[in-house]
Amino acid sequence: MTGTVCEERGQVSVAGIMATLILILITAGLVDLYRLHEVRSWAYQAASDAALAGVGSGRDYAHFMATGMISLDEEVAMEAARERVQEEMAARGIRDYVVDIRVLADPEGGIVPGYPAVPRASQWNVSSWSESEPSVGVFLVIPVETYLFGLINGNQRIQVHVFAAAGVATT
């Protein structure tokens, strides 16, 4: 009788340890998912803010006065968007990131095939960017440290891709 009680205690201990390990793995996975979702949400906001800053600062009023059509000064818009991205990244302490800014300066807008480079970066899952007005597009890649997912993929950071665009209303 005593041997059976000891065997049951041993089985319960093993089951308890296994359940604890499974709960730890589930918790680590949930923490990683939350972290990735939080960074992605924040990065969309940062990219959107940068696009708006580029459009706001890059309006070419000289072109408007000459032709009656609003356009963007490509260099000014790009620099304003880049500065905003740098401010946002510095505020979060992120030093390792990639930014790709494109400007559609023409009053009629335009199309940029293959941009953003990763279609899922856009909330609309587009593989080419097109606008009917002058616009600024901002594509960000931010590497994120994870716990469980980092162990699964060889301790490499997971890349979060986001894309946001803003345009000048011409009506």
How does this model look, in words?
- The longest helix is centred in the first third of the chain and has 56 residues, at 2-57.
- 51% of the residues lie in helices and 20% in strands.
- The protein has four helices and five strands.
- 28% of the residues are buried.
- It is elongated, with a radius of gyration of 24 Å.
- The chain has a three-stranded antiparallel sheet, with helices on one face. It has a two-stranded antiparallel ribbon with strand order 2-3.
- It is of the alpha+beta class.
Key attributes of the depicted protein:
two-stranded antiparallel sheet; alpha+beta; 3-stranded antiparallel beta sheet; 171 residues
Low-confidence stretches: none
Rg on CA atoms, Å: 24 Å
Give me the number of helical elements. 4
**Structural class computed from helices and strand pairing:** alpha+beta
> What series of H and E elements makes up the topology?
HHHEEEEHE
**Widest sheet: strand order?**
1-4-5
Number of DSSP-assigned strands: 5
Strand content: 15-25%
Rough outline: elongated
Please give the share of residues in helix: 40-55%
Q: How far from one another are the termini?
A: 88 Å
